Amino acid sequence: MILLDGKRVAAEIRGELREKVALMKKKPALAVVLVGNDPASEVYVKGKIKACEEVGIISYSYRLPENSTQKEVEKLVASLVKKKAIHGILVQLPLPKGLDADKILKLIPPEKDVDGFSSANFGKIALGEDGVSACTPLGVMELMKRYGIEVKGKRAVVVGRSKIVGRPLAMLLLNRDATVTICHSKTENLKEECLRADILIAAIGKERFITADMVKEGAVVVDVGINRSENGKLYGDVDFENVKEKAAYITPVPGGVGPMTIAMLMKNTVDAAEKNE
Q1: To pair with 143 at 20 to 30 A between CA atoms, which of 30, 168, 173, 252?
Q2: pTM value surpassing 0.85
């Protein structure tokens, strides 16, 4: 079993980006919008700002209170769109209840959508065109690539169909010539579907849901889930301790896909700045 060490690979990528940014005439700039005081969001935003500092990206943080109105958030995002010096805009999700995230995200033009959540960018990825990909799916693909895992011709099963992970990841796998199945809460015979997978990706947000009897011997297992249990420990969607005995490659939680997501956000921001030079 080989551990897919996202922490190590993400550090490598940040180093490569730092060298690239040092040669750029204009420094890339990322604006991060945080509404409310969700503890998990606070942690994610700190991680993103720290990564920006390491790479050499200028980061701007904009904080709005929990009780902000839809109009107030939209006004802030619209003002950031107009700023030429800002190459990427990120609205940290989830937003407080009562706010329409889709409406807010639609204000960000595709070229500044470094999260890759816009309909335009998703459409380009679905059509196999050059678009900005969502950071987590892109991170999964890059992690497998760096470990020399061949995707072409393999049977990939993605468990989860969210707009920010499952669906775009399935498209990226398809674009790399994998045979892709998307499973979800309504899938019949889920275990049998998973057992067919050469590459099994879990992105459903259910603690240790994928068990060893659902995994084919020698499969590549990628765990996108991050779940905090009652004892405060972090667990993925995969029962790591038992599944690792069967997998050829497996990601840990934490330290697998998470660091790759932030590394890809940095890459998307640098790419956006390059296109703007």
Answers
A1: 30
A2: yes
